[in-house]
Amino acid sequence: MRILLISGISGSGKSVALNVIEDAGYYCVDNLPPSLLLELVKTLELEGVKNAALAIDSRSAHQLQSVAPTIDQLRALGHEVKVLFLTASSETLIARFSETRRSHPLSHHLQAERISDCTLSLTECIQAERELLAPLQFLGHVIDTSNLSANHLRNWIKDEIAVEHASLILMFESFAFKVGVPLDVDFVFDVRILPNPHYDHALRPLTGRDQAVVDFLEAQAMALELFDDIKNFIDKWLPSFKRDNRSYLTIGIGCTGGQHRSVYMVEKLAKHFQQQERVLIRHRQNH
């Protein structure tokens, strides 16, 4: 059975992800206590279910330490298990809760455990949840949904579930330094040293995927040299990450606005590596 375990910080988009996955034909269960995971999988297997998405969150705080050993058991039984962990910056989460005017799911639970009558702030709830979910965060692939629209996240999740089993998935992600470095990258390369197409009025409205921008950058010897340096770094260390049984390796490429130089470099790197690796492409500022 193909099993997708989903977890993450409240407000980071788990409901959006589950809806997309359910639409893709997965059997979905939300807020599953980890103690029921093995039995549920056995039941679904008997019923002939081939794809299941199971969400585990902080409301099962006292059982989260058992998730990693249970995943090992499931894999030993022959199941393909993939873990997605959604997160976002605290500023983004606060803004989302403010927009929906909903209380944090842990607010009442944590308040009941406190001796004092002081009301817990939203920031305190978010921090407490990060600590509770720490055992799950690095079991699989972390997706930072900060500054992502719901539609953008839906497309990313569709890409995730479309990727067939591979020993390692190589993710190339462009972003804007002016917005901030994403939380989900393993390595960051800064391409702001390259000439900026933004200052050419004809190129400004385009992106790094447009041929005119590609031609502009590839006329710069340093752009090709920087590409070679990044490519060679990945080529050298990728086998080590595979031996470490990593499922994902995310390479972040940043420029000022996340529109021209970083997009160009991501597309060029992805084109090179997709000849021999499973590759996904993400552009944060090009929705």
Automatic annotation (TrEMBL):
The keyword GTP-binding applies. Residues 170-285 form the RapZ C-terminal domain. ATP binds at G8, I9, S10, G11, S12, G13, K14, S15. Transmembrane segments: none annotated. Residues 1-162 form the RapZ-like N-terminal domain. GTP binds at D57, S58, R59, S60. Keywords: ATP-binding, GTP-binding, Nucleotide-binding. GO terms for molecular function: ATP binding; GTP binding. Coiled coil: none annotated. Pfam families: PapZ_C, RapZ-like_N. HAMAP family: RapZ_like (MF_00636). This is RNase adapter RapZ. The gene is rapZ.
